[in-house]
Amino acid sequence: MFRRKHASHFNSNDAEQREAKINELKSALGPLSARGEKYCSQACLARYLEARYWNVSKSKQMLEESLKWRATYRPEDIRWPDVSVEAETGKMYRASFKDKEGRTVVIMRPTKENTKSHDGQIRFLVYVLENAILSLREGQDKMVWLIDFTGWTMAHATPIKTARECTSILQNHYPDRLGIAFLFNPPKVFETFYKAVKYFLDPRSIEKLNFVYMKDEESMKVLYKCIDPEVLPVDFGGRNNVEYNHEDYSKLMLEDDIKTSSFWADDSKTVNHVASGTFVPDVTHQSSLIAAKAS
């Protein structure tokens, strides 16, 4: 009696369909400032579309919220001296090596938390993310997280308020940036904290999490499949005898700050637009930066 309306089937693996969606989103955004144009590269638009299952309307809303956040938070203005105190213990830093696909690796060590500043920790996270993205090789737009939970206890647990904001920033303003994450040696007690945080995670983010244990050969194979044991630090079951050196790492970050300032100098006088104030570069226009020796 009633004819069912046929839904259009979108195939994300179809290059032409993807391009059409990207162009539709770009058109829907309207005019952008110079920085907005840089942020909203083809790859960027594709990430936001992927995050919202290629729904243009929802992707547009998400992207506009990110642009507003960036205009207010100004991640492009964060410099190493602003956050270096958060890095003194090596609790989070960009590794000197890439994974087998050439992706940037970010190492995190929750047991080395050295401050209680909510704002400072958030600001440091954003700085590390921006720096990791800037260091991506041409053709790459995702990173790898290597999180060491060896010796972790509930005393090391991140306050729920901070964990919630970190998760919100990662998922809403850095969509589809995570390629894979390894949670190394998480103790049994970590399950309680994980259950609380898991509530805020997107299902697809959860799928990228891998629990790895030094004494579990099968789980270690998953890690070795991603990162060559020769470059993987000994602490993670590899054969690379390297340790974090704050002084050396600071020198590298200061060099990166200069490159960052130089990269955006031409846009420094751009008048803010509702979709301006953005910073993440189109990685296809940025050469690989010096790898961090500190990992």
TrEMBL record:
CDD domains tied to this protein: SEC14
Classification via Pfam families: CRAL_TRIO, CRAL_TRIO_N
Organism domain of life: Eukaryota
SUPFAM superfamilies per record: CRAL/TRIO domain, CRAL/TRIO N-terminal domain
Family matches, as InterPro entries: CRAL-TRIO_dom (IPR001251), CRAL-TRIO_dom_sf (IPR036865), CRAL/TRIO_N_dom (IPR011074), CRAL/TRIO_N_dom_sf (IPR036273), PI_Transfer_CRAL-TRIO (IPR052578)
Location of the CRAL-TRIO domain: 80-244
PANTHER family documented for this protein: GH16843P (PTHR45824), SEC14P-LIKE PHOSPHATIDYLINOSITOL TRANSFER FAMILY PROTEIN (PTHR45824:SF14)
Protein name listed in UniProt: CRAL-TRIO domain-containing protein
Organism field: Urochloa decumbens
